[in-house]
Every structure is written in C-alpha cells, then in structure tokens.
Specification:
With about 350 residues, this protein is mainly β. Helix content is about 15%, strand content about 40%. The chain has three domains: about 80 residues, Immunoglobulins (Immunoglobulin-like); about 80 residues, Immunoglobulins (Immunoglobulin-like), CATH 2.60.40.10; about 130 residues, Immunoglobulins (Immunoglobulin-like, Sandwich), CATH 2.60.40.10. The chain has four helices and 24 strands. Helix 3 packs antiparallel against helix 4.
C-alpha cells in the first residue's frame, strides 16, 4: 500500500517530480535567435570586414561567408583580403541542446576599390588661445562630399572650411572623412587634436625665426603667438632684447633693441608674464644673422614691428621679407655665392 501510494504521488501533475520531468523535456524546444550588431557599410572601399553579433544567453555561434559551410566562430569575427564584388555573411546561434537558429542573421555588401583620402590642411594651433576653431580640408577626388565630427559626436554633413565657436577650455579632436561619387567613404578619417586654454600661463610660441634660419641683421625681428594680453619678453643669448604685449589676435612681435653679431650662432627664447607670474621658457631656436649694407634699408622697412602688435600689417610685412630673402638666396646661388646667401631651413 505504501509503495503504491508513493508511485501515485510521483505521478501527480504539478508535483515537484512532475515539474522536473516537464522542464527536462522542454530543453531545446525553442531555437535561439541571432542578431547582428555591427556590419560593414555597403558599398565598402575596404578589403576587410568585421562583424559583431549576439544570441540567446549561453549560445554558441557558427558563421559562413559567401555560401561556405558554417563553422564555429565568436564575436567579433573579421575577414581580410576580400575580393571586389558582392559578399554575404551569415551567422547562426546554437543552444546547449543543439537547437540551431533556422533563420541565420545575414548581411549583404559590395566591396569596391578604396575610397578617397581626406586631408586637413588648415587647423588651430596645438594649444589655442581662441574659442573659435576653423578647419579646411580636401580629398584627392574632386567633387567629394564630407562629414565632420567634433569630440566623438556623430558624423554629419559639412563643407570646407568648417568653424566651431564658443569653445570652452578643453581638449578637442576634429575628424572628417570624404565620400566619392560612388558613395565610398574614406575608411580612415583625417583627425586633428588640440587644446583650448585661455587660463593657464603657458610659454609663448616662437614662429620667427625658424630653427637654423639666417636673418637679415644686425637687429632682426622676432615674432610668435601667445594668449592675448600677456607680456612677452624675448631673450637672445641669455640677455633680454625687448618686450611687448600680445595683441587680440594672439600675435606678438619684437625688434631686437641691440645689434647682433654675424660671427656666431645665436639662440632666442621667450617667456610670458601675467600678474607677477612668469611662464616656463619657450623652446629655444637657434639662428644666424647676416649683415648686408645694401639690405639694411629693406630690413628696416619690411621687417620692423613699427606697425605695432595690435596691427597685423607687421605680419604681412614679415611674409614679404621672407619671400624677398628666398629670392635673394636663389639669385646668389645662381651666381655661385650660395654659401653666403641668406636662407631659411
């Protein structure tokens, strides 16, 4: 009697034993689902492709490329050296009971020749003293369209030049990629990183002279960039030769207050002052001075800072002097006197 009762108890629907039996029989009753989470764009200018995918918890996966037999794979999976033309990728999940997703996740795309190369040719200084940043860019394909992104934001349509305003002190990264007429995108966007900092007292930058330059003397012009409003002291061979205030455009210019010798190599540095504080010294720039009586008048008129740091005309004059120096260098070289000619490296 007790044995019979025990048997009847095991067979009662809804009992613990019956529930375990029902659970065991339901394993694998529902096949897992597979979802693609990342795939290449189509058309693509890359001969490589990367895919990511997910499935039911604990599922394993099998992948197939271009109709090949399914084989075990894990996410992410990548393929290289893909031929030009159409391709199809499939992935299916499989659970522990061996049930397979009957409708594999699939992606079709076309591989074409590489897309255009994107180049940035105008950008802010690496450390910028302006809250506005402009970028100019181009692509090797005429008529390309562009998409831009700032600090990881989604890419959006843009044209060159593009300008960003009201930038707070922060580090920034600008990226841009081009599309050609086929719709192929540059796989490696052009990128530029810079820092906007109108607070920190930083060392000024020296833009003239360039390293190793030969300047018209004996009292050459020095120029550079720094945060507007700072006081700049210029040091040549450990002796201060002049100071000025940085203008609103972040530019400064100093003409040497004393003549420099043409018989030695000189070194120029600069540092900034604000509210009794002094910045670190700038990078040192070595240069030489060439004395030429016939050029002294041109030097005074073209390269001086008489326009004042608040007027950009001194910068244009310096560019004119630079062009004249290069012309004289070529002329001297033509006459066999290239060793004595002024030059810029």
């Amino acid at each position: 009697m007790w044995a019979l009762t025990g048997l009847l108890f095991l067979g009662v629907p809804g009992s613990g034993g019956g529930a375990r039996a029902q659970g065991a029989s339901s394993v694998g009753a529902t096949a897992p689902d597979t979802t693609l989470t990342f795939a290449p764009t189509s058309p693509s200018g890359q001969s490589t492709a990367r895919f990511t995918f997910t499935g039911s918890e604990g599922a394993r996966f099998e992948c197939s490329l271009d109709g090949a037999d399914f084989s075990t794979c894990v996410s992410p999976v990548a393929y290289a050296n893909l031929s030009k033309g159409p391709h199809v990728f499939q992935v299916r999940a499989m659970d522990g009971a061996g049930n397979v997703d009957a409708t594999p996740a699939s992606h079709d795309w076309i591989v074409l020749s590489p897309g255009p190369d994107t180049r940035i040719y105008s950008a802010p200084l690496p450390v910028s003293f302006w809250r506005v940043a402009s970028f100019a860019f181009t692509a090797e394909y005429a008529g390309a369209r562009f998409e831009c992104s700032l600090n990881g934001e989604a890419f959006s349509a843009c044209t060159s030049p593009v300008t960003y305003a009201d930038l707070p002190d922060n580090a920034y990264t600008f990226r841009v990629h081009a599309y050609d007429k086929r719709g192929i995108r540059d796989a490696t966007p052009a990128s530029y990183s810079w820092l906007v900092d109108l607070t920190t007292l930083r060392a000024p930058g020296i833009t003239s002279p360039f390293l190793g330059a030969t300047l018209d003397g004996p009292m050459p012009v020095f120029s550079g960039t720094a945060r507007p409003g700072l006081t700049i002291s210029v040091i040549v061979d450990l002796e201060e030769i002049g100071s000025t205030t940085v203008d609103a455009a972040g530019l400064w210019c100093v003409t040497s207050s004393q003549p420099l010798s043409a018989e030695r190599l000189h070194v120029v540095t600069a540092h900034a002052h604000e509210n009794g504080n002094t910045s670190l010294v700038s990078l040192a720039v070595s240069f030489k001075v060439k004395l030429a009586a016939e050029e002294s008048v041109e030097q005074e008129e073209a390269g001086g800072c008489s326009a004042g740091p608040g007027d950009s005309s001194w910068l244009l004059a310096s560019l004119g002097l630079l062009a004249g120096t290069r012309r004289r260098s070529r002329h001297a070289a033509h006459e066999g006197q290239g060793g004595d000619a002024p030059h810029l490296s």
